[in-house]
Design brief:
The structure holds 2 protein chains of 2 kinds. By secondary structure, chain A is mostly helical. Chain A is built from 13 helices and 2 strands. In chain A, strands 1-2 form a two-stranded antiparallel sheet. Chain A is globular. The longest helix of chain B has 30 residues. The chains are: A mainly alpha, B mainly alpha. Chains A and B meet through helix 1, helix 3, helix 4, helix 5 and helix 7 of A and helix 1, helix 3, helix 4, helix 5 and helix 6 of B.
């Protein structure tokens, strides 16, 4: 059991670490590939290599998360929540919301906070995957979206100690912490998704062509690109997340907590030789 | 046309992604974009001939998206990169980062980068059109059985979720609710959540009473160890290739990493024995499409002896030059057009 736990920690650490390195490649790649023509040539296929790498990390993490045993109840709950959330993602087009605002993140944050990191991760990853399949918007950016949304849910339980310190569940501090957390992720999600597109927009050219152009310069250019193209859009997402969690957080948390209690029914195999049906679900 | 095996379509799309992301050569880009464009046009015609009612997908026009991306990245590149000898305009150097000469070279390279993104988008919209949702779900490896169950529940519930959203909206509208701002989301979200949680409870009870159980944790650690080793090997191969330029050793390590990962997924899949109802049938045309795609993709990443791959790395700086034309690579890329050769009657 201890070995299993160690393996889990290694998996989480490795995939998150490698994922972070892969996401940030536009900043460290130029420093590595300034020397010769041959290496510059290889830098050309690095976008492909890193998309594959993100996909691999996602696959390994997903296997780890589901190998801990997902109960039937969790499967059903996840399935229905993913359906709701994925549908909300394309209804958002029909109902006006400001800028990059999307109602999917508050639910990922709140469900991850209540039901735990693994649940939050699966909700994030599968919401993006299912809505991409349903709306026909799958593409090479999908692994990045899934990974980032998974991180949102995976990291949501990190709010728990802070909430406990600020007055525990049901207090105003809880909503404040979750709203700020959701707000940060709203901004961060946009910034991370932009990194996927950035090497194409900025062209990899100036990154290795200009002598002495290091990570700092790349970062400066990225920030400029980000401010010009997407800051307003992402700020809307941030404000939207904060507002939605502030306004609806209490109500949604109450619903989720109530169902967490109600969902505590267990499955008992029938006693051998009894006349009872093959199994009975005991509900409360 | 839809009768190709899903895996044949996936390998075709993968080959295009490999080709598009590894080259910036205008000749090759033009060829690939033409192939994808012809396929899209053909699908459009087929769809117009037999309209199918599907889940209301939010379709973004491929042409419009492509134009937007090409313009954005061309403009951005011109403003950011002040390299090249054909100067168009010179901005006052006092402006930070933007100041300097705007060159034709930067414009061309930015537009080429935009074309790559547009091509990726077009390729995936072909894939999304030809593969039905169920076929996509079936592509999920058996190791991810629990996740696949969640996905198929979600896909099954999505139409009724949409219906539920509409019902809640109508019910609230009757009470005088209007969508005006962010606050208006709450009276929609809470009933929706409440209803769907109720439904998930019924579903869980139904599944349990039918003996569906996925509860137990997995004891076998070998798949995970294999996959961790796979990531490490893959990463090592990539770095060996990138930082030290050891082409053959790097490719061998990359292949070994992939093999370890596939072995891990396969081993994990054996814990979920299930059978497929009505499996997809393999035809000779599927094998042909896969073979042609593999051949085309290999011209872009495998260092074949005797194949000069310098044409792939088109680079307009410091002076705009006419791109090299490599007949072998161009010929291999024609393999990507294999789905176009399918008889239209197959649809």
């Amino acid at each position: 059991m201890n070995g299993q736990k160690l393996l889990s920690i290694i998996t989480y650490g490795l995939t998150t670490g490698v994922g972070l390195v892969a996401f940030l490649y536009p900043f460290w790649l130029p420093a590595l590939t300034q020397s010769s023509y041959q290496q510059q040539a290889h830098a050309g296929d690095s976008a492909l290599m890193l998309t594959v790498l993100i996909g691999i990390c996602l696959a390994v993490l997903l296997l780890e998360v589901q190998s801990q045993g997902i109960s039937t109840k969790t499967v059903a709950l996840l399935g229905v929540l993913v359906a709701i959330n994925a549908t909300l993602r394309f209804v958002e087009v029909a109902i006006p919301g400001p800028g990059g605002f999307s109602p999917i993140f508050p639910l990922i944050v709140l469900a991850g906070y209540i039901f735990g990191a693994r649940f939050g991760f699966l909700l994030g990853v599968l919401t993006l995957l299912v809505s991409a399949i349903l709306t026909g918007s799958a593409g090479p950016w999908l692994p990045y979206q899934m990974f980032t949304a998974g991180w949102v849910g995976l990291s949501a339980p990190l709010c728990r100690p802070l909430v406990r310190w600020l007055g525990g569940p049901g207090s105003k501090g809880e909503i404040a912490v979750l709203a700020i957390f959701g707000g940060y992720w709203g901004l961060l999600y946009g910034a991370i998704m932009n990194i996927w597109f950035w090497p194409y927009a900025a062209g990899s050219a100036q990154m290795y062509w200009q002598p002495g152009a290091g990570a700092w310069e790349a970062l400066q250019r990225y920030l400029l690109f980000y401010v010009i193209t997407s800051l307003v859009w992402d700020l809307a997402r941030m404000v939207g997340n904060i507002a939605l969690i502030t306004i609806g957080g209490t109500a949604v948390l109450r619903v989720l907590r109530r169902f967490q209690l109600r969902f505590a029914f267990t499955y008992e195999p029938a006693p051998t030789g009894g006349a009872a049906p093959a199994g009975a679900a005991v509900s409360r | 046309m839809k009768t190709l095996h899903p895996l044949a379509w996936v390998s075709w799309a993968a080959a295009i992604v490999v080709a598009l992301t590894t080259t910036r050569n205008p000749w090759l880009l033009a060829l690939i974009l033409t192939i994808v464009g012809l396929l899209l046009a053909r699908l459009h015609r087929l769809a117009a001939a037999q309209p199918e009612a599907q889940i209301p997908a939010v379709q973004i026009s491929v042409v419009r998206f492509g134009l937007l991306v090409v313009t954005t990245s061309a403009i951005f590149n011109v403003l950011m990169v002040h390299l090249g000898s054909h100067v168009l305009v010179t901005l006052p150097p006092a402006i930070p980062l933007l100041g300097g000469s705007l060159t034709l070279e930067a414009l061309v390279y930015g537009a080429l980068n935009g074309l790559v993104v547009a091509g990726l988008f077009a390729t995936f919209s072909v894939l999304n059109r030809v593969l039905p949702v169920r076929a996509m779900l079936r592509l999920v490896p058996r190791a991810y059985y629990p996740a696949a169950v969640v996905m198929s529940i979600a896909v099954t519930f999505a139409p009724s979720a949409l219906q539920q959203i509409q019902q809640v909206r109508e019910a609230q509208a009757v009470r005088g609710h209007r969508m005006i701002g962010i606050r208006s989301w709450l009276p929609l979200l809470v009933p929706l959540l409440e209803g769907s949680l109720e439904r998930s409870m019924q579903l869980a009870e139904a599944m349990m009473s039918r003996g569906f159980a996925t509860g137990e944790a997995v004891r076998d650690r070998r798949p995970q160890l294999l996959m961790i080793a796979g990531i490490a090997t893959w990463l090592a191969g990539w770095l060996v290739r990138l930082a030290w330029g050891q082409e053959a050793a790097g490719l061998a390590l990359l292949a070994a990493g992939i093999a370890l990962l596939v072995a891990g997924v396969w081993l994990a899949g054996r814990q979920h024995p299930y059978t497929v109802y009505r499996p997809d049938v393999w035809h000779r045309r599927d094998v042909l499409v896969i073979g042609a795609s593999l051949l085309a993709a290999s011209a872009y990443i495998v260092p074949w002896p005797g194949l000069d791959r310098t044409a792939l790395f088109y680079y307009p700086y410091p002076t705009l030059v006419w791109p090299l034309l490599s007949p072998p690579i161009l010929l291999a890329s024609l393999g990507l057009a294999a789905p176009l050769l399918l008889p239209a009657a197959a649809a």
